[in-house]
Q: What sequence folds into this?
């Protein structure tokens, strides 16, 4: 798929995708005879994983570190797993914190509902 199609499927701008390529998050993107980028499902899966990590508040520099480990191959599997486990722990803490906030809001909403009824 070309840049436009890839951008539409990932919902990332072509500018962002070129930036990811520039900093090394997208490596070895093939080009056609005209020099235009040609993306495969392999790149699509990888970018979707990057998006997932970003949406769970993993910093871009940590994603880049993960990407660099990934590029080194199987010898870095333990390091990659550890990095993701650490991120999972942070994410679980954030979710627990957000649930506490949600519960506080629910309590306040219930309080206002009770006042409205009386």
A:
């Amino acid at each position: 798929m070309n840049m436009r199609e890839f951008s539409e499927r990932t919902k990332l701008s072509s500018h962002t995708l070129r930036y990811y390529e520039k900093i090394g998050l997208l490596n070895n993107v093939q080009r056609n005879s005209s020099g235009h980028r040609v993306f495969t499902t392999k790149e699509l899966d990888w970018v979707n994983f990057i998006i997932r990590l970003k949406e769970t508040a993993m910093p871009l520099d940590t994603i880049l570190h993960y990407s660099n480990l990934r590029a080194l191959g199987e010898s870095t599997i333990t390091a990659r797993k550890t990095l993701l486990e650490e991120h999972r722990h942070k994410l679980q803490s954030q979710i627990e914190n957000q649930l506490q906030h949600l519960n506080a809001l629910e309590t306040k909403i219930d309080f206002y509902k009770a006042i409205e009824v009386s």
Q: What stands out?
A: The chain has a mean pLDDT of 96. Residues 1-55 form a domain with the Multidrug-efflux Transporter Regulator; Chain: A; Domain 2 fold (CATH 1.10.1660.10). The CA atoms of residues 66 and 80 lie 6 Å apart.
